[in-house]
Recover the amino acids of this structure.
């Protein structure tokens, strides 16, 4: 046993040493040279989107090809667009009024745990953020996505070499074991954990600064006065994207009681199969969740037809999404929890406050801290939900699956790692980006002319 531990430590130390050597060279490069490397990483994934999507499908058996191609291309574009022109090295800000000059410096070596649900774009984005900050990164992928994540890293290393930069700025673990992952996250300077809660917890127990994610269970509220014909297709697009595998995808649709039937009819009009019969609902519950209420591994990222087959349900061949009337919130009905497949739960509310209550109860069961989707024309109601619900992101009148992680059309930082704050047992309640992977020194000048308040000024409101 001791020999195995020592062997693992030596094995990981080799990666760490190579990363530190490469990073020492890279941190001497200019902002322009740094950005050229980040651009190259995004472009090579974008240009090989089809091949990488095919590899991911073959290896993981999750999601669908067209959506993975779209994700590989769009995430590369959006993330690079968000990083382009941003200062991340040397003096990044001068505040003359406060007398503070901020200087960015690399953290060093980043360890990144990446999931089988996002085996291409998560390694890509983590590498882009790490290198933007002047760091090196070592990736340990999920054991079910070693080949496709490995090919992604191989492409990124190749373009680094073409730029005359050390390939070991980006590495991927060849031999996978709990001991190797444990040693990696305890030897690196900072850890990014994107995946299951067990891995996230391990990252936070590593003794190193860690940036993890929480479970998703996006609640989607449709307000009164909304154009249902415009909102429902957006919800369907988000729920079924990549066979429902995205953590920011809509999970429950909560709508006014008087328009509930109209909403379900709109789902049907757009390829939805609505389940109202009690016995059929039970079939789907048993197919999607196990006896302990945990999602079945057999449904994750699978197609509508595969889900129906598991449930022994007969549905039309052209069905895009399965809509199931829930019999209560996540505390009372497991359908209110996260369903990583093209299935959505449906609820009706009396007034908007009641809709927010339903969303909150579902979030308390699972997904607290992640995201909420709202389709509304009422700023008052949006802000009411914003104040009441314990999540880090509220996505308004958008496809949540493709917008909560940042887009060209909102101000959220583009990423594949969505922090869920203390609600989700995370250290950040925002989208991970390069700013989380730099140290910032602050030079504080003596501001002799600053006004010192009198006691009367000081102790008054």
């Amino acid at each position: 046993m001791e020999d195995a531990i020592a062997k693992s430590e030596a094995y990981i130390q080799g990666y760490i040493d190579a990363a530190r050597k490469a990073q020492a060279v890279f941190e001497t490069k200019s902002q322009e040279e740094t950005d050229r490397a980040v651009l190259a990483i995004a472009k090579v994934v974008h240009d090989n989107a089809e091949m990488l999507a095919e590899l991911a499908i073959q290896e993981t058996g999750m999601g669908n090809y067209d959506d993975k191609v779209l994700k590989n291309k769009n995430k590369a574009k959006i993330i690079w667009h968000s990083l382009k022109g941003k200062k991340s090295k040397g003096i990044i800000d001068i505040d003359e009024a406060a007398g503070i000059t901020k200087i960015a410096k690399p953290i060093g070596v980043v360890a990144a745990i990446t999931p089988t649900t996002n085996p291409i774009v998560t390694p890509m984005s983590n590498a882009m953020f790490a290198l933007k900050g002047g760091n090196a990164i070592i990736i340990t992928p999920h054991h079910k996505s070693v080949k496709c994540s490995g090919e992604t890293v191989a492409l990124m290393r190749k373009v680094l070499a073409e730029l005359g930069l050390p390939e070991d700025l980006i590495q991927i673990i060849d031999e996978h074991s709990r001991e190797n992952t444990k040693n990696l996250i305890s030897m690196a300077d900072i850890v990014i954990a994107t995946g299951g809660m067990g891995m996230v917890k391990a990252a936070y127990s590593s003794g190193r600064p860690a940036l993890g994610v929480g479970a998703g269970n996006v609640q989607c509220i449709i307000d009164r006065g909304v154009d249902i014909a415009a909102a429902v297709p957006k919800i369907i697009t988000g729920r079924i994207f990549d066979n429902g595998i995205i953590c920011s995808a809509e999970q429950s649709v909560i709508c006014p009681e008087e328009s509930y039937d109209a909403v379900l009819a709109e789902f049907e009009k757009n390829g939805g199969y609505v389940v109202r019969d009690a016995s059929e609902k039970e079939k789907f519950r048993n197919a999607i969740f196990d006896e302990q209420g945990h999602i079945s591994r057999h449904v994750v990222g699978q197609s509508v037809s595969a889900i129906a087959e598991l449930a022994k349900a007969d549905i039309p061949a052209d069905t895009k999404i399965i809509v199931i009337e829930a019999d209560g919130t996540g505390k009372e009905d497991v359908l209110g929890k996260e369903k990583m497949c093209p299935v959505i739960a449906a609820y009706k509310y009396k007034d908007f406050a009641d809709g927010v209550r339903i969303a909150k109860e579902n979030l308390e069961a699972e997904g607290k801290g992640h995201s909420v989707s709202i389709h509304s024309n009422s700023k008052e109601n949006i802000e009411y939900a914003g104040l009441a619900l314990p999540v880090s992101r509220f996505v308004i009148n958008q496809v949540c699956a493709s917008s909560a992680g940042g887009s060209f059309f909102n101000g959220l930082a583009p990423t594949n790692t969505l922090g869920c704050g203390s609600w989700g047992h995370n250290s950040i309640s925002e989208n991970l980006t390069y700013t989380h992977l730099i140290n910032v020194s602050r030079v504080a000048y003596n501001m002799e002319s600053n006004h010192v308040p009198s006691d009367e000024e000081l102790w008054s409101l």
Q: What stands out?
A: Residues 218-404 form a domain with the Aldehyde Dehydrogenase; Chain A, domain 2 fold (CATH 3.40.309.10). The radius of gyration is 24 Å.
